[in-house]
Amino acid sequence: MVQQTIAESGFRTPTPPQTVAIPEIISGKNVLLIAPTGSGKTEAVLFPIFDQLLKIRDRQGISIIYITPLRALNRDLLKRLDVWSKKLAFTVEIRHGDTPQKERRRQSITPPDFLVTTPETLQAILPGKRMRTHLRHVRWVVIDEVHELAGDRRGVQLTIGLERLRKITDREFQRIGLSATVGNPDQVAGFITGGNRCEVLQVSPPKETKYFVEFPHPTDEDNVVAQSLYTAPEAAARLNRIWELVENHECGTLMEAVVVKSLKPKPTCSSCSSSLLAVSSWSTDFLRRILEKKLKAKALEDGEVDALSRARRSADLVLSYGRRAVVAQCVYGIGPQTASRILAKMHDDEKRFYKDLLEAKLRFITTRPFWDKP
User: Fold this and answer.
1) Which of 102, 210, 333, 363 is least enclosed, having the fewest CB within 10 Å?
2) What is the pLDDT of residue 325?
């Protein structure tokens, strides 16, 4: 049934992370999956779990706990899971600090098969008498963005929570960690499993790009630039080298906003056919949900207030500067505050604008600690 649903949803062939991880997860092993963003690692974990879940005829309580470090990630995940839950006939719900009391009460009476939560909320629901009854049936725990939790206080809290959950279940449950980048995989694997055996699966991106590493030595011109930017001569030398590369680029055209869905598998510049280095996108669904809450006079969370504030600043910049504001923010992936500083120095020549962009970004990097002071 799962395979048929996957095929109907447009998944033709598994991605490298899915090829590597699915057999290991089906076999019941604890797994730490390290793979690039957008490579399908979430599905690599969920597909085999769905397959095993549907084989349980008399499901009771909560079978799957999915832990993310941020509530905003919980909502995005819930939207994706809703589609699968309707197709595969299982229930999924979210639980965090702002979950209304009515929903909490309903979850304690009729628990979902799949619970999405945060480390703090997991600790909060463990003492509840009814919830403990439901948590006894947990078979899988998935920790997303595990690198965000390992090594800090929240990670310690999560480790304690998982061991408390282990006492409630009175048996081992399968533990799976997901991350795009981990510097010390073995330590993070131990963090996930409490020291038990864990398979570390690292999937590298395809080797289709050649990298050339340069370390330009400062010249007299670089020393002058360094003084004007209040930075090191080595940094100024690298900046000038970047400018040289831009000057020698075949077309030097700055790309406008990009619709991610319309991109080809290997996107290229429309003017000179060179490969595009990076593309960033904005979650319009997330912003729409924030605006709907505000229109209904509902209280916004801290992360939603910040997102709305950034959106307003971005809108003001686009209205003031038009296309150049879109270029500065969308293509180069910088925030509206930094973009406003850059766009304060406008030039008709786009190449000159690009150089100003690089200089402003460097100034931002070298002086940011002073801006952050109260």
Assistant:
1) 210
2) 65
Per-residue pLDDT, averaged over 68-72, amounts to: 78
Range 350-374 average pLDDT = 55
The answer to whether 109 and 74 are in contact (CB under 8 A) is: no
CB atoms within 10 A of CB 12: 6
Q: Does pLDDT of 71 surpass 50?
A: yes
As beta bridge partners, residue 116 has 66, 94
Pairing of strands 114-117, 92-94: parallel
* Angle, vertex CA 161, rays to CA 158 and CA 167, nearest 5: 150
The DSSP secondary-structure symbol of 275 reads B
Domain 2-202 has CATH 3.40.50.300: yes
Q: Are 300 and 293 in contact (CB under 8 A)?
A: yes
What are the strands of the beta sheet with 64-67, ordered from one edge? Answer: 92-94, 114-117, 64-67, 140-143, 174-179, 31-34, 199-202
Report the C-alpha gap between 24 and 198 in whole angstroms: 10
CB-count exposure of residue 325 (10 Å: 0-12, 13-18, 19+) = buried
Tell me the helices (H) and strands (E) count for the chain, helix number first: 16, 7
CA 289, CA 152: separation in Å to the nearest integer? 31
CA distances from 91 to 94, 111, 115, 116 (A): 11, 9, 9, 11
DSSP state of 372: T
Take residue 107 and report the two structure tokens written for it.
């979850």
Beta bridge partners of 201: 33
DSSP string, 49-88: HHHHHHT-SS--S--EEEE-S-HHHHHHHHHHHHHHHHHH
Tokens of 84: 């699968």
CB 113 within 8 A of CB 81: no
CA distances in angstroms from 175 to 66, 146, 331, listed in the order given = 10, 12, 38
d(CA 178, CA 32): 6
User: Is residue 243 classed exposed, middle or buried when 0-12, 13-18 and 19+ CB atoms within 10 A define those classes?
Assistant: middle
The pLDDT tens digits of the residues spanning 222-233 come to: 888 788 777 788
